[in-house]
Specification:
139 residues; alpha+beta; 3-stranded antiparallel β-sheet; 5 strands; Type II toxin-antitoxin system HicB family antitoxin; TTHA1013/TTHA0281-like
Length: 139
Amino acid sequence: MLIYPVTLIPDDNDTFLVEFPDIPEANSIGDDEQEALLNAEDALEAALEIYFDEKRPIPMPSKVKKGQSTVILPALVTAKVLLMNEMLDQKVRKAELARRLDVHMPQVDRLLDLRHSTKLEFIESAYHKLGKQISISIV
């Protein structure tokens, strides 16, 4: 899973601002640190959707410093982020991926929708058509 470091900044109105050094479009606030970090996950996913829409490579997380807070992307979202980056690296458009998978475009649109609960098997197939495979580990 992708683990993005965040900066928690206490504000003068007793709230916390969350900034992502790697994804400047993602910002969030909360009444306390816990709420700020919870809101930060939604902010991160919303910012990543911008990258998807603009077909821009998603920056990978930088190294987490000791004691630094983080936001961990869910495994499914991580798989989709890495898939989009691979498609961009290989210059494979959605229409080409649909052709390779022998599916209609709406299925590829859902595949690349961070909020859609795509089956892992379909994501695996997409990686396979790009000459890649998913590796899962428990740490």
